[in-house]
């Protein structure tokens, strides 16, 4: 069986989207090695845990698809507070299933995200 190792998001503005995942969600940039000014990059990869997140500046950007990127967080209340403090619009927290809380938002390119706390 194959392992999912990378999710690629196609972006109109690679630098802005990569900066969101770095600055708002705390993922470390793994490529390019010099992660200072990302404005001119067309490919950026980030360490997002067991699956790498890549931002690609080519192809057709679609935000109306059925994909939702789901991120597990330790403290959902704090994560929502922190994102709102940084100016992001986060939907109210709700219980998805017994013991699982979730909050939804969109990244700067319109991709749907779900922050989830389990247990």
- Beta-strand percentage range: 35-45%
Mean pLDDT, all residues? 91
| Overall tally of structural domains | 2
CA-based gyration radius: 15 Å
- For the secondary structure, the number of strands is 8
Strand order of the largest sheet: 1-4-3-2
Low-confidence stretches: none
Report, as a whole number of angstroms, the end-to-end distance. 29 Å
| Number of H/I helices | 2
CATH H-tier superfamily of the largest domain: 2,3-Dihydroxybiphenyl 1,2-Dioxygenase, domain 1
Instruction: Identify the overall geometry.
Output: globular
What is the name of the CATH class of the largest domain?
Alpha Beta
CATH topology of the largest domain, by name, is: 2,3-Dihydroxybiphenyl 1,2-Dioxygenase, domain 1
Which structural class do the helices and strands define?
A: alpha/beta
Profile the largest sheet: 4 strands, mixed
- So, CATH architecture of the largest domain? Roll
Oligomer: single chain
Percent helix among the residues?
10-25%
Order of helices and strands: EHEEEEHEEE
How is this structure best summarized?
With 119 residues, this protein is α/β, with parallel strands linked by helices. The chain has helices at residues 14-23, 76-85; strands at 6-10, 28-31, 43-47, 52-56, 68-72, 94-97, 100-106, 112-118. It folds into 2 domains: 1-61, 2,3-Dihydroxybiphenyl 1,2-Dioxygenase, domain 1; 63-119, Signal recognition particle alu RNA binding heterodimer, srp9/1 (2-Layer Sandwich).
């Amino acid at each position: 069986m194959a392992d999912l190792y990378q999710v690629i998001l196609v972006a109109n503005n690679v630098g802005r989207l990569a900066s969101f995942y770095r600055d708002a969600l705390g993922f470390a940039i793994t490529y390019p090695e010099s992660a200072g000014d990302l404005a001119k990059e067309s490919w950026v990869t980030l360490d997002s845990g067991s699956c790498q997140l890549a931002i690609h500046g080519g192809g057709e950007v679609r935000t109306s698809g059925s994909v939702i990127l789901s991120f597990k967080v330790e403290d959902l209340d704090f994560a929502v507070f922190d994102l709102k403090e940084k100016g992001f619009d986060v939907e109210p927290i709700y219980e998805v299933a017994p013991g699982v809380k979730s909050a939804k938002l969109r990244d700067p390119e319109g991709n749907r995200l779900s922050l989830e706390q389990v247990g």
